[in-house]
Amino acid sequence: MSELRISLRQDRTAFEPGEELNGAVLWKLDEPPHAVELRLFWFTRGKGTEDTGVVKTVQFDQPLPQETRSFGFRLPAAPYSFSGKLISLVWALELVVEPSREVCRLQIIVAPGGQEVRLDSIPTSDLDW
């Protein structure tokens, strides 16, 4: 049975834009993988068309069936994590193994103060231009 894990050195999942994100990935596989990749990306969910943006990837060269590897990313300045009534933008790290297509995902928050922006908390009077 396979095991995939993403661990963050900061021992938290909320970050400021531009902050350094460091950690390690672990995999224990039954078969030797052809490729192992870690992706930093964002995606939208909710009503309407869903969108995705891969910001950075790390390819782990010559992966063995069982390993732990370190990684580091500088988080981008935008977009911020947000939640609204119709749509949300979510950041995540995703570890992908080929050819089995096994995946492990860890959601994170990237926003000022490490707090997801809540669109339903913005007074509508602030939106009138």
Report on the architecture of this protein.
The protein is mainly β and 129 residues long. It is 0% helix and 56% strand. It contains no helices and ten strands. The strands form two sheets. Strands 2, 4, 5, 7, 8, 9 and 10 form a seven-stranded mixed β-sheet that branches. Strands 1-3-6 form a three-stranded antiparallel β-sheet, with no helix packed on it. The model has no long low-confidence stretch (mean pLDDT 93).
Beta-strand content bin: over 45%
Q: Unreliable runs, pLDDT <50, ≥5 residues?
A: none
Number of helices: 0
Query: What would you say the CATH architecture is?
Result: Sandwich
Radius of gyration over alpha carbons? 17 Å
> Helices and strands: which structural class?
mainly beta
Secondary structure elements and pairings:
Elements lengths: L2 E6 L5 E2 L4 E9 L6 E12 L5 E9 L5 E9 L7 E2 L3 E12 L3 E9 L6 E2 L11
Parallel strand pairs: 2-9, 7-10
Antiparallel strand pairs: 1-3, 3-6, 4-5, 4-8, 7-8, 8-9
Short key terms for the protein model shown above:
globular, 129 residues, seven-stranded mixed sheet
In short:
The protein has 129 residues and is an all-beta fold. The chain has no helices and 10 strands.
